[in-house]
């Protein structure tokens, strides 16, 4: 692949390219200011000694953080988020890993199963919550953290876990497996020692946080289930 | 000897497929059933009636909400596309540390909760917000503007802000896959920057654009938190209308019908896209 930059044919177009390039970078700077400005603002305002969220600046205070730590309900909610997040990530990654392994085989109805796996992200987020609300409601299962909320989160992150894991498992170098088998390793040994070490690890560990990332965005589920 | 992939497909598939069948397919199917039931003062009871769907399409209140939400979703999608494309392009051009820093800068805000990212606009657009203070400080206005928050505009800003990454990322991934030699060839042959963009870059990055647009459009169609926080009564979207059937009105049958309508729209959209690309590619940046 050549490394020289675009438009080196003559000096004239190059100058024009530089102009565009500069404009793009200026735009990028503005873009990032808009991306970060509001977030930084909220951090600054969290130290503002004022009862209303906003300006004017009335002096520095830590009282909002003190009342956060002092608020048992809020701290419990924070704990809940962490527990459910971890549990959902583990369950979804486990299910996705098995599905990913299955997809290395040829079997009938593969496309159909693929559609099934990505259904939770095709179905709009709020609907994912509504259908479970109705389903559990009629089953008489009361909404709670480790039943309804957990199920909703696993549903939502499972496709993401699968889509990150599957390509990794699929492109795995088969000759490594063959070598291990030739040397007398059993199938499950091959899996545990080779696949999990070489291929799945970078991906499973990334699909964990990825799933968590997606899950953290699923406030709507939690608020509905 | 060729090695057979580990395990039997049936056993490997069973846990995941069963999970999705029980917790996804059955609930969706049941919701379709409930959408034909009728809700009254004494709860929701089995029935077979089309009145929920008739209510949705005949009452201007609800069909209006649906059309408004479709329009806003389109606006958010186009706006995000225009704002994100240059960033995605720059990202694919950048090298080494610059690229790493840019990617990190792009991702970092999205590790903050979705709710937080929508919430940040409250103290900015509010009556005593940062924007009003700034404008008054500069002497441009005398009294704070009330109309910045709790309207469609605020929802639009919030949604674009919250969902940009879903547009930037797939476009970046698909530009990254373009053979750079093609762009250089076009430039060497004397194509101007705009025609390179229009005739080489855009067509080749099309899968990423489609994938980003679908993601943003769908996310906006079902947006609930952002309009709830920033929209006020004027800015609520279809997602809020659905939620209120369950949280306030207790009209589950009608809520189910509203939900089914949204699913149908979504599925139609995917069928349309499915003719051009594989559906899973939508979620992997067209790859």
Detailed description of the structure:
The complex is a heterodimer of chains A (225) and B (287). Chain A is built from nine helices and no strands. Chain A has helices spanning 11-45, 63-70, 72-102, 110-122, 125-139, 145-170, 174-182, 187-216, 219-224. Mean pLDDT of chain A is 74; it is low at 1-11 and 194-225. By secondary structure, chain B is mainly alpha-helical. In chain B, 70% of the residues lie in helices and 2% in strands. Chain B has helices at 9-34, 51-58, 60-93, 96-107, 114-119, 122-125, 130-137, 152-176, 180-188, 193-204, 206-221, 225-231, 238-247, 252-274, and strands spanning 38-40, 43-45. In chain B, strands 1-2 form a two-stranded antiparallel ribbon. The radius of gyration of chain B is 23 Å and the shape is globular. The model of chain B has no long low-confidence stretch (mean pLDDT 85). At the A-B interface, helix 1, helix 3, helix 4, helix 5 and helix 6 of A face helix 1, helix 3, helix 4, helix 5 and helix 6 of B.
Task: Please outline what is shown here.
The complex is a heterodimer of chains A (225) and B (287). Chain A contains nine helices and no strands.
Outline the fold blueprint.
The complex is a heterodimer of chains A (225) and B (287).
Chain A: H1 11-45, H2 63-70, H3 72-102, H4 110-122, H5 125-139, H6 145-170, H7 174-182, H8 187-216, H9 219-224
Helix pairs in contact in A: 3-6, 3-8, 4-6, 5-6, 6-8, 7-8
Chain B: H1 9-34, E1 38-40, E2 43-45, H2 51-58, H3 60-93, H4 96-107, H5 114-119, H6 122-125, H7 130-137, H8 152-176, H9 180-188, H10 193-204, H11 206-221, H12 225-231, H13 238-247, H14 252-274
Antiparallel strand pairs in B: 1-2
Helix pairs in contact in B: 2-3, 2-14, 3-8, 3-11, 8-11, 8-12, 9-10, 11-14, 13-14
């Amino acid at each position: 692949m050549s490394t020289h930059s675009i438009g080196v044919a003559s000096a004239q177009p190059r100058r024009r390219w530089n102009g565009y390039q500069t404009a793009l970078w200026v735009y990028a700077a503005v873009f990032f200011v808009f991306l970060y400005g509001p977030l930084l603002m909220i951090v600054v305002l969290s130290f503002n000694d004022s009862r209303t969220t906003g300006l004017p600046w009335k002096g520095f205070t830590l009282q909002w953080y003190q009342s956060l730590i002092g608020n048992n309900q809020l701290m419990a909610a924070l704990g809940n988020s962490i527990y459910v997040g971890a549990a959902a990530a583990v369950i979804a990654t486990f299910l996705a890993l098995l599905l990913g392994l299955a997809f290395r085989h040829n079997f009938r109805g593969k496309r159909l199963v693929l559609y099934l796996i990505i259904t939770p992200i095709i179905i709009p987020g709020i609907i994912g919550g509504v259908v479970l609300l109705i389903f559990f409601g009629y089953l008489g299962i009361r909404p709670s953290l480790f039943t309804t909320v957990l199920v909703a989160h696993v549903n939502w992150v499972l496709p993401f876990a699968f889509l990150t894991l599957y390509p990794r498992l699929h492109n795995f170098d088969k000759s490594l497996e063959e070598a291990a088998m030739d040397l007398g390793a059993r199938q499950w040994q091959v899996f545990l020692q080779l696949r999990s070490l070489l291929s799945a690890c970078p991906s499973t560990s990334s699909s964990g946080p990825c799933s968590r990332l997606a899950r953290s965005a699923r406030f709507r589920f939690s608020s509905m289930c | 000897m060729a090695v057979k992939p580990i395990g039997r497909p049936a056993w490997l598939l069973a846990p995941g497929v069963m999970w999705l069948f029980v917790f996804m397919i059955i609930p969706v199917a049941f919701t379709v059933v409930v959408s034909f039931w009728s809700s009254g003062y004494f709860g929701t009871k089995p029935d077979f009636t089309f009145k929920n769907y008739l209510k949705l399409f005949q009452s201007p209140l609800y069909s209006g909400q649906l059309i408004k939400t479709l329009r806003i979703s389109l606006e958010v999608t186009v706006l995000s596309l225009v704002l994100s494309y240059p960033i995605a392009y720059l990202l694919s051009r950048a090298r080494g540390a610059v690229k790493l820093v840019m990617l990190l800068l792009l991702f970092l805000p999205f590790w903050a909760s979705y709710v937080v990212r929508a919430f940040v606009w409250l103290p900015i657009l509010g009556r005593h917000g940062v924007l009003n203070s700034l404008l008054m400080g500069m002497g441009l206005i005398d009294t704070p503007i009330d109309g910045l928050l709790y309207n469609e505009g605020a929802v639009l800003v919030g949604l674009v802000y919250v969902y940009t990454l879903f547009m930037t990322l797939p476009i970046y991934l698909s530009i990254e896959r373009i053979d750079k030699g093609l762009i250089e060839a076009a430039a060497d042959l004397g194509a101007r920057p705009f025609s390179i963009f229009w005739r080489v870059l855009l067509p080749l990055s099309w899968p990423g654009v489609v994938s980003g647009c679908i993601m943003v459009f769908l996310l906006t169609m079902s947006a609930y938190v952002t309009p709830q926080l920033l929209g006020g009564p004027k800015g609520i979207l279809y997602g809020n209308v659905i939620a209120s059937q369950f949280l306030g009105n207790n009209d589950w049958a009608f809520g189910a019908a509203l939900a089914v309508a949204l699913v149908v729209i979504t599925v139609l959209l995917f069928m349309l896209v499915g003719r051009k690309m594989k559906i899973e590619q939508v979620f992997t940046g067209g790859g």
